[in-house]
Request: fold
Amino acid sequence: MRVLITGFEPFGDEAINPAWEAVKRLPDTISGASIVKLLVPTAFGACGAILYEALERHAPDAIVGVGQAGGRCDLSVERVAINVADGRIPDNEGRLPVDEPIQPDGPAAYFSTLPIKAIVARVRRRGVPASVSNSAGTYVCNYLMYLALHAVATGRPGTGPGTLAGFVHVPYLPAQAVDKPATTPTMPVETMAAALEAAVEAIVEPGGATTAPEGTIC
Amino acid sequence: MRVLITGFEPFGDEAINPAWEAVKRLPDTISGASIVKLLVPTAFGACGAILYEALERHAPDAIVGVGQAGGRCDLSVERVAINVADGRIPDNEGRLPVDEPIQPDGPAAYFSTLPIKAIVARVRRRGVPASVSNSAGTYVCNYLMYLALHAVATGRPGTGPGTLAGFVHVPYLPAQAVDKPATTPTMPVETMAAALEAAVEAIVEPGGATTAPEGTIC
Amino acid sequence: MRVLITGFEPFGDEAINPAWEAVKRLPDTISGASIVKLLVPTAFGACGAILYEALERHAPDAIVGVGQAGGRCDLSVERVAINVADGRIPDNEGRLPVDEPIQPDGPAAYFSTLPIKAIVARVRRRGVPASVSNSAGTYVCNYLMYLALHAVATGRPGTGPGTLAGFVHVPYLPAQAVDKPATTPTMPVETMAAALEAAVEAIVEPGGATTAPEGTIC
Amino acid sequence: MRVLITGFEPFGDEAINPAWEAVKRLPDTISGASIVKLLVPTAFGACGAILYEALERHAPDAIVGVGQAGGRCDLSVERVAINVADGRIPDNEGRLPVDEPIQPDGPAAYFSTLPIKAIVARVRRRGVPASVSNSAGTYVCNYLMYLALHAVATGRPGTGPGTLAGFVHVPYLPAQAVDKPATTPTMPVETMAAALEAAVEAIVEPGGATTAPEGTIC
Reply:
């Protein structure tokens, strides 16, 4: 089994992106699956092109995007990607889409095909807080998650009907928060890497696709 | 023009629901549009039946669901409803769906057809904080929003191709928070009603469907 | 009985200060006590001079300072003022004290002599969230609270041994938050004024000085 | 030089206390100073007795209390301890003081005599978020901090006029938050231990007592 894990380049005012820092620390093999690590630009368009190339080259069984969600406390396992790009700041190539569809002919949304509840359970058992998130935002993270699921749904080269895809968000690193307000939550890279490793285990080991109440009450 | 505005009954540990409290205080006419106010049960299934009846009876031009989102600070204008019901506590009829599709044959999501950015702008001009939200959760609020948009998409009686539909969330009332932690944000019912009135104005007055960067950066 | 209530002028990037907006809406009499409303500059030094003049002129039975605490959700009834001025931004006269004592010969702190737990209870009964706060900060609010208690402790003209003094903080107004993050809590001025009126009732009506567990667990 | 560092036992619903977990991982020597680690009970009264014994036995040059502040994000360096005990839940011996003075004849407060701003700066340079906190609460942490400073002020055996004393708070550990809301911030024990080590360096190395604007604006 082969798992493609992507991590974004730094964006906005940040000099570092915890997603890529954590991804690059992962071992090359997890539970017998080989791990392919891919650095992707934080840019609409460009990150998709890099993803498509990697799909063709590696034909992964699962695609796990990882991105920074400044302000969150835990490993957020995304449930759904929506067909919209709506930024608040320009991406790393200066593009600032507002209310644009990602794929004009694509569906309104794709649900993650990763075992999201099993990932949450496994990461928690590893001692790291995790939860299902119902929004991956509308920036480049959601964009890449949507594109990965659309690639599978439309049978792009390197994917098959059983290719799993999804996305997780990680908090700021401690070093990113030293000049931010005292209420900024963080997670060190070692903790993130441990959480990601547990997440991959939940994906590649059989029996992972459990379900459990993780819903909201609003 | 006729606008159907729904508000939920209290649920969980609450004795009051700010959504219905605010809805019932709305005037009967806003910017020339007649306002139909509908109390709906906080119950999967039942709230849909009540909605369908009201659609048939009133054939509204726009459907605006309103629900409580305890913990939020502002009027949250929902962008999207997703095809999943996943509760954390049972609804008012004791039902606790976990990861169930709302409509097994429905699309993964529907985008609000209300002018969400124009609503946000109008409510802010009224002096009340408002923002676009990218998740209506997975409980009865998201359920009702999904059903309303699905009703329009599938041409249920009382709807037409131009029927608008969407959802907004409101915070707790101050009285709901007196026994909650000091960090619980609230909004009085008069402020909510003013915000909802501004929201309806943005829906019924021409030129409302503006767009603007309101996106996220994760 | 006479109660002196102070409210600050706007400071920082704000064009309005909710404290003064709420204070000026108070009635002239509450539970038989006459209310003297005093606008004070948000400036170390200057606000004290104005306070001292008002003490001499009005010889109040109780002094209640009111200030803006952006980010808080409820009426925060301050327990203690500490003998330090430590700003993060200059005050309205350009002064930015860092770790300076307010009164070089004064004690490290003064406890509020208002019935803080009774105020919290009374405000909550009015339906408005309130709590005891253990820090009034280190800016002009804490400064004024310290000076008021020091004035009483040192027998400044217009005070007597039974003169009560303390401070409460109020959140942002909704209009202040329309351009702030969606997670900014607010309280409308009418709600603040109702809370302040309940607070004054708790001060002037006999039997107010109750105690109850409102403490922290850290 | 000798530094006494205390960490509390678990309390409330917790099975572990991050304070002690971090303290016990510290090296025995930091910047040439010998480190004495002391586990203290989370109990009013009892923790003081243990502290006094340790003062007599070790005659430390500096006393650094460490406690859990669930909900905080960073290393909080406390500025002040106040003369009040006001719990919300009973301590580990079942005692729940409400608005009681810690020392009936003691001053209203003691300021930390540790170089708090230098500690914050040093911890941040280590890449860990830190800030000055203006409230150590009213529970056992504030109690122990007050007692330590009172011990020095009153010349208890084992202290001298130059004995430094203060307190820092640490967040929850990740493992404590896996069953808490997704918005619960955490810090791993390794990060805490690194921060505490940097804090001790700031205390024992000359030139530490810097000052800088770290104040509040409320």
